[in-house]
Write the structure tokens for this entry.
Amino acid sequence: MKICLTGPTGYVGGRLAAKLLDAGHSLCCLVRDRRKLDSRHWRSRTGVEVVEADLEDRDRLAGLRSRPVTICGSIRAGSILSAPG
């Protein structure tokens, strides 16, 4: 299964990415800066696609809707994606 993972440059997301790849999944890693993945040992593995975008970039995210999404990235208070209230 191809899984879109936000936050793969962080502590949780980086470890989750490795586990998902070990389980046979392929990944679409959503990052703001692809260079931050350079130090990840799993970055060069088969099945890793990197998409540069921000979580608030609706146009860029529109093509990812058909994939299961795992969110490990943070969302700022006041963001268009944060819960009201």
User: Anything to note?
Assistant: The CA atoms of residues 11 and 26 lie 19 Å apart. Residues 2-71 form a domain with the Rossmann fold fold (CATH 3.40.50.720). The chain has one domain: 2-71.
